[in-house]
Amino acid sequence: MNRNTFPLLTEAERKLPLYVTSVGGWNNQERMVRETGFPDYQWIQTLGGEGTLHTERMSAGIAKGQGMLLFPHERHEYYGTKEPWEVMWVSFNGSMAEELLASLHFTQSQTLYVSHPDTLLKKMHAVFSLLDAQTSLTGFECSGVMYQILLDLHTYASPSEVRSKRQHYEQLSPVFGYIDSNFRQPISLEMIASRLNLSPQYTCHLFQQTLGMRPFEYINKFRLSKAKELLLDEMTMDVKEVAQRVGYEHASYFIKLFKREEGVTPSAFRRIHR
């Protein structure tokens, strides 16, 4: 593929949280030196061959299954080291692009390993197809696909050749099933760790790395979500019984947790929603 496409962006589209500014690919990427950087964010993914990226903070090689996430206005240089270096890219910007990337833990230019590269490439090809069709809604449709691409980067990509977030979720899958079946009963950290054949300490680390919370934080959130369902599905059930049904022996503790999480008591939650 030797092609690049630039959408015609309206003022309305430039106000979107995310919008695509270009998409393209080269059968053999030539040396690129940008002293003042590029005006937009870029995701550049290797399809074949190898290359090298230099920024002010780092230098790294990029092989098949890897890519470069580049931030705007940062000096960078990249070139092929094993040709043909075949790449595909998409560039983007938006009123919330920086904030969204930060929420996904992307705060600077970097190279990433991608465990499912075809998932990202499929969506970049989808952007190509949308731009080829070029309708009045193309910019908005591309915005939606770009958001999916960033979520895929968050799910499948990692800075080093380790497990992706999706693989961590898959590793935790037995625990999710166990909590779903046993949330009404007492659950200890040792019970959770045994389902994974891991130490309690590493289980906590895995939860923190994958979900951004400790195991008991996840259990409490799960129980409270079930409590909200009960509060609305069983309107005559008193709060004490709801608490017991979702694994809390003491209603006062349940009410305290519920208010801390939702900002209102269980009774007030019930009134607001019904």
Helix/strand layout:
Layout: E1 3-5, H1 11-14, E2 19-26, E3 32-34, E4 41-55, E5 59-62, E6 66-70, E7 76-93, H2 97-103, E8 110-114, H3 117-133, H4 138-156, E9 157-158, H5 165-182, H6 189-196, H7 200-211, H8 215-233, H9 239-245, H10 251-262, H11 266-273
Helix pairs in contact: 3-4, 5-6, 5-7, 6-7, 9-10
Structure description:
Helices cover 48% and strands 23% of the residues. It is built from 11 helices and 9 strands. It starts with a strand and ends with a helix. The protein has 2 domains: 3-158, Sandwich (Jelly Rolls); 171-273, Arc Repressor Mutant, subunit A. Strands 1, 2, 3, 4, 5, 6, 7, 8 and 9 form a 9-stranded antiparallel beta sheet that branches. It has 274 residues and is of the alpha+beta class.
What descriptive keywords fit this protein?
alpha+beta; Jelly Rolls; Arc Repressor Mutant, subunit A; 2 domains; 9-stranded antiparallel sheet; 11 helices; elongated
